[in-house]
Amino acid sequence: MIKEKAIELAKLIKESDEFKAVKSSEARLKLDPQAQDLIKEFQVLQYNILEKQYQGQQPDAEDIKKIQLLESQVGLNLTIKAVMEAQQNFEKLMTDVNETIAEELSK
């Protein structure tokens, strides 16, 4: 019975505006090579900076400047902005669902 209710909940979540917005924004992202390149470049640079920090090194000024520039470019890209916003809204929905379950279990 619990598994059936979980399946029912999953179906309801898939029908939610938040889930649909995530899927729609991700589909648009796949069609935007410029946005994909920005994300890839940001992730690579972020990884390199973190790797340096794990090795006890400080990122150099050039890397800091590059990541700041990329952060602003990512923030201005409407496709990426839509994905991030949709993901945040979906995460809020899932947090609300988890909190509701936790509340009911504690009664």
Description:
The chain is mostly helical. It has one domain: YheA/YmcA-like (YheA-like fold). Helix content is 89%, strand content 0%. Helix 2 packs antiparallel against helix 5 and helix 3 packs antiparallel against helix 4. The chain starts with a helix and ends with a helix.
**Major sheet:** none
Please provide the count of β strands: 0
Question: How do the helices and strands follow one another from N- to C-terminus?
Answer: HHHHH
CATH class: Mainly Alpha
Summarize this, please?
By secondary structure, the protein is an all-alpha fold. The chain has helices spanning 2-15, 17-30, 33-54, 61-76, 78-106.
Draw up the topology in text.
Elements lengths: L1 H14 L1 H14 L2 H22 L6 H16 L1 H29 L1
Helix pairs in contact: 2-5, 3-4
